Amino acid sequence: MILVQASFVAHLIIRRFLPVICFSLIPRNSFLLYFVVLVPETGVFKRYAGDWRKSCFYQSHLLFTSTMAAQGYPFSRKMETEMNLRRLKYFVKIVDIGSLTQAADVLHIAQPALSQQLATLEGELQQQLLIRTKRGVTPTEAGNILYAHAQAILRQCDQIHSAVNNAGQSLTGQVSVGLAPGTAASGLALPLLQAVRKQHPGILLYLNENFGTALGDLVLNGRMDMAVFYGSGMTSGLSSQPLIKEDLYLVGAHSVPNPGKYVELSDVAKLNLFMPRSHNVTRRLVDDAMAVRRLSANIIGEIESSATLTAAVASGLGVTILPESAARAMTGPAKAWMSCISGPVIQVPLSLCVSETLALSQEAMAVKKILLSLVFEQTAPVIEPMLVAS
Asked: What start-end ranges are recorded for coiled-coil regions in this protein (predicted)?
């Protein structure tokens, strides 16, 4: 009888009081506490604890695990996954800002702790991810690869949370859209804002006007949902949906002789040209067309800025080649004429581009549908549409 009572008392102490005493007496940053909380996971106390999840031991376990999570101790597959997601968020923020110190301030975490998280991530991947310099940090080749994948993972996690939380409710969240300046779609900014506001008031629309190369990079790294710019299927990692085709036009100031409604490509080769660099789709199309005819463009300046290009053309120093809608947009500010290039006619596709690897959220799909309908409405009277998807 005495042995039974002693066994019961020992069982009660182990089950109810010992964990609480350990948790109270051992400092929270002590590795001993880490061992104590791991005991039920190893099964040492399971024959005593029974339904231990209902005990104060389990409450202590929960409190401690949350504390240890902030310090980077992985003690279960679930927590290890959570920590990896947290490290990915930290890594993305460091790359975005370019400084460990500033990233630590933004993330509200001590810099040594942030450096430790980065070191742990590099240890897991067995790769150096960042190069540290006096000016800050820059990603290595491996770091750039991780950055792109981390953007995709974190974005998909956000989409999951948004989809689950908004199940059965109206669409809410942010959608980002890029529009290349001077394109047939650049005038859609206000109509798109109005249509999205009317049909989906819970969606916050972010618009970015930039050149196609920059917009493509933003879509590729997951910082933009979709973009409309010239080109079709020329960038790896992007899925392009052609919307319309536009003829290329020669644009020049009135101080430069106007060739008339049409101009031969051979005559264009004799003029001083302002063009973007070779990565630009318009430049590539012009270079290819001239190469076929054994011609060479006389390029006197490479300009990426729309404002600078307009000023350069207006000065009369040279002419430029643009898609029809961009050419029309320049004729007023530059006081210029425009002439369609023939022999041959060169056409450039205007496309809606999204990432091949990042799925669009429901909100982004809704905005995409509105954008496509607006592109068709705006361009159909002027330019023959190639393809418009619903």
From this structure: none
